[in-house]
Each structure stands twice: as C-alpha cells, then as structure tokens.
Amino acid sequence: MSRVVLDASAILAVLNREPGWEKLTPDLLSDAISSTVNLAEVQAKLVEKGLTPDDAWEAATSPVREPVDFTGEHAKLAGSLITQTRALGLSLGDRACLAVGLVLKVPVYTADKSWKNLKIGLRIHSIR
Questions:
Q1: I need a surface site. Which of 10, 72, 81, 124 has the fewest CB within 10 A?
Q2: What's this model's pTM, rounded to 2 decimal places?
Q3: Residue 107 · residue 4 · CB < 8 Å
C-alpha cells in the first residue's frame, strides 16, 4: 500500500462515523498522512465540541499514520491553487491537503463532493 493524504473532512468522517467513513478501511488508514493544517482544523472542531485541546489532538491524529509538516513548498503551491479552486469554494485547508498530495504525488481522500471536478493532475477520491 502506498501513502494517501486525508483531508480534514475525511478525518472527521472517520471520527464521527459520518456517511462514507467505511471507505477509509483500516488498510488504507494504516498508510494515511495529513497536513498539520488539516489536523489543526480537525482539532479545532473537536475543541468546539468540548474536548480538551490534548484530547482533541490525540483524536485528530488517531486515524493517520503521521502528520506532515506544512512547508514553504506546500504553502506556495496551496496559494497558487486559488485560481483553479476558487469557483468550487475550497478553503486554505483544502488547498493545503491538495498541495501535500501534489508534492508527494499521492492520492487524496476527502468527503467534499465538489473536489471531483478538480483537474489538477492529482487523484482525488471522494468518500461520499
């Protein structure tokens, strides 16, 4: 199995058992990574629900094998993706996920259906 990148929406789907979560099998998750930007998004959502910051971080990182530091290369690419993603309403976090996938040349998984319309040279899997 090769690495895959999880978007915040995919991680939240796993944690909350939302529709599509079952597509992220244990085998796939065993090689899943996520940008620290996306993990911060997940942690923030969990803190808003009442978890302590430490518990929220532990939960946010539990579905992934490792966090991937958001580098200058990722930042430049995420910023550059604005023209291709603006019409779909993608956030900075969404573009951060895409940037990590593009740099590492690995597919990304999201729960956001609109990503299916992106043509950026990257395999994108929507779990919904």
A1: 72
A2: 0.95
A3: yes
